[in-house]
Write a structure and sequence with these properties.
The protein has eleven helices and ten strands. The chain has helices at 19-28, 50-68, 78-91, 103-109, 121-125, 127-136, 150-158, 165-176, 198-204, 215-228, 254-262; strands at residues 8-13, 33-38, 72-75, 96-97, 114-120, 141-147, 186-189, 210-212, 244-247, 271-272. The strands form two sheets. It has a six-stranded parallel beta sheet with strand order 4-3-1-2-9-10, sandwiched between helices. Helix 1 (19-28) crosses helix 10. Bound molecules: D-glutamic acid. Residues 13-15, 17, 43-46, 77-79, 120, 123, 151, 191-193 line the site of D-glutamic acid (DGL). Provides the (R)-glutamate required for cell wall biosynthesis.
């Protein structure tokens, strides 16, 4: 069925990372209503223990689905998806679209057959990543940098703060200066936050690299799933609340965040999810 203004979806991440997917959704389906939930109380996910995260994500998404009643959920976070997709699919019956490192895509397009991946430390060490490599790009050498800092830099870049080029260059060196790193011709963004650092990577990274940002493909996949979902009509004639932006903890610069999410359609500021 076509996307209608009564279609409501929930986009989830630990912070601003999922907004790259929201940006793609806005241009593909302007009438879609989007609720965004950022688990800022536990940001950065990439530095949290797996057990804590798995339990936390399952509880939070179940609560959010109960309150917000989306037709579909996008887990717009690689760190969450590579850990919690199975448990979420067990607990929820609605369609869930995840976001996983674009290793398959990189394997399809790399000429040098040496591919790079930037991700959080948690995603970098997950068996899920090893499996993706074995299943979809086994003939490529995969070089990974699990970064403790890039997600934070992306939060700053999103709020319009300048990120020092040396900081980004240092992180890129951690990828390209590994053994065989100079053979890399394609780098996948394995953390949704990195969408907002892409201009820095393109400017400061080696020339000729193909940078793969999965955000538009995740948005397209979500819209395909939504079209296949038979939707029940709204229960009353009352207008549905418009796009809402929830956080689990207030940001230090609240006012600042409100002005930066407005251009993505969240014009009523943010509120605490409880
Ligand atoms: N945006 C998240 C991801 O895609 C992670 C950032 C964090 O460490 O919280 O992995």
């Amino acid at each position: 069925m076509p996307i209608s203004s009564s279609s409501r979806i929930l986009v989830f991440d630990s912070g601003i990372g999922g907004l790259g997917v929201v940006q793609a959704l806005r241009s593909l389906a302007p009438s879609l209503t989007i609720d965004y939930l950022a688990d800022t109380a536990l940001f950065p996910y990439g530095e949290q223990p797996d057990d804590l995260l798995r339990e936390r994500i399952a509880k939070l998404i179940c609560q959010a689905c109960e309150h917000l009643k989306p037709s579909l959920v996008i887990i717009a976070c690689n760190t969450a998806s590579t850990l919690a997709l199975p448990i979420l699919r067990e607990k929820l019956t609605l369609p869930i679209v995840g976001c996983v490192p674009p290793v398959r895509w990189a394997g399809r397009v790399s000429n040098s057959r040496t591919i790079g991946l930037l991700a959080t430390s948690a995603t970098a060490r997950r068996p899920y990543l090893k499996q993706l490599h074995e299943d979809f790009a086994a003939d490529c050498k995969l070089i990974v940098h699990g970064s403790r800092h890039l997600a934070n830099m992306a939060e700053r870049a999103f709020r319009g703060e300048q990120v020092a080029p040396d900081e980004v260059q240092h992180e890129l060196a951690c990828l390209f200066e590994q053994p065989n790193g100079h053979d890399i011709d394609t780098v996948g963004l394995g953390c949704t936050h990195y969408t907002f650092l892409l201009p820095y990577f393109q400017r400061l990274g080696p020339a000729g690299i193909m940078w793969l940002d999965p955000a538009p493909a995740v948005a397209q996949q979500a819209l395909r799933r939504l079209e296949d979902t038979a939707e029940s009509p709204p229960l009353s004639d009352l207008p549905l609340p418009s796009d809402r932006f929830f956080l689990t903890a207030a940001p230090a610069e609240g006012q600042d965040l409100a002005s930066h999410i407005a251009w993505l359609g969240f014009t009523n500021g943010w509120q605490i999810f409880s």
